[in-house]
Amino acid sequence: MVSRNIYLQLVLRIVFIVLTVVISTYLFFKESYVGCGIGILIIIAQTSALINYVNQTNRKIAYFFDAIKNEDFTLRFPEKLSVKSLEELNHSLNMLNNMIQDIHLKKQAQEQYYQEILRQADIGIFTINPKGHILFANPTVQELLNYRPLNHIKQLNQVDQELYQLFQKLEPFENRIYQLGNERGKRDLSIKCTPLTIEGQDLLLVVVHDIHRELDEKETDSWVKLIRVLTHEIMNTITPITSISESILKYFKKGSSNTHPTEFSKDQIKNTAKGLEVIKDQGNDLMSFVQSYRKFLSVPEPEKELVSAKKLLERVKLLLEEQTDENPVKIEIGVHPKELELYIDSQQISQVLLNLGKNAKQSLEGQENGRIKFICGINEMNKKFIQVWDNGVGIPPELLNEIFVPFFTTKNSGTGIGLSLSKQIMRLHGGSIQVLSDENTVFTLIFD
Questions:
Q1: What is the mean pLDDT of residues 370-395?
Q2: C-beta separation of 390 from 441 below 8 A
Q3: Which residues constitute the domain of residue 384?
Q4: Orientation of helix 266-297 relative to helix 418-428, angle to 10°
Q5: Boundaries of each PAS domain copy (predicted)?
Q6: What mean pLDDT is predicted for residues 20-29?
């Protein structure tokens, strides 16, 4: 409506100017110079009025946008004018101003709402620009890092030099665990970061969480599981020894007196010998169990070197294929890129892969078309990994949280330290081991 009225005003004014020009030209050729001069004056006046009208409209729109740019919503245009088109324009600009003001107020309220949520959150949150300036930091992160106000990561140098160096080298999508010690004690901090782009500016969103309590609970839970397994294994070994010892003792003692050698029968001597053999076997099993425990606790520090991933997997494949098996499985390897190298202790990682490969073969017993895949590559977080995949029976969901507990096993034979030892070797390498078991089972070794 407004644009149509302005359009009509412009058309009418231009039409009047054109008519005046035509009339003035006609009078000029009729040699009516006085009338022609008056016509020229009218043309000048009309042109001036047109320019003034256009400038007035443009000026109002320019004032309006300047006010919006400066977040000044007090600007108001008069709505009672003699010119209908300008009156409607002013009314529309005032309405638009009210709408933008309403949106601005809602946006401010929403921003305050989100900021209050961030302030009350029990995890630390702050954003860093490429120059190290901290644009936002909630009170929790200032409490966790024991410094306020946080304006630049250089301030962390006053808190802890190693923490400052960590933040200097922090990369997008990186996760770190750091133990911060100060006069308040020690805190185990989980640090995660995510890249953001806001208004064309690259930022790093950092989330800091004190996981000391979670680690304590996890550690306690791990000790409970370990003690339960140790107790189970030791009791299984000791119980037969105690029972057989009591039975043999009855042969040698009657009441408070010892049995005379001449009173022993051949069956008693035979049963005594068998019982001692069982006690010996149980003792050897217990010694083997203790040796496994010592082996688990004495994993040496890895001697790392650059190793060709392809050669590593080919060696593991060869060792697995050499093991005799009534039901052979197909073993495949894949390395992407082909020239990929790993900075590892090849002997320890080979031990891990062989253990996972043996477990995979056992899960494929009695199954046709059994397959095992060893895949090595680089994931989306630019970390190198090795996956061990098989299409066996899989791991029951209720056991997924138990399989890495030392000495836990569902097999009739074995010590139950293979996976826990593999996890410890990966921890010494600064990496981790993960498992997924649905239709197929996949163990993933991730290296830092």
A1: 89
A2: yes
A3: 305-447
A4: 20
A5: 110-149
A6: 82
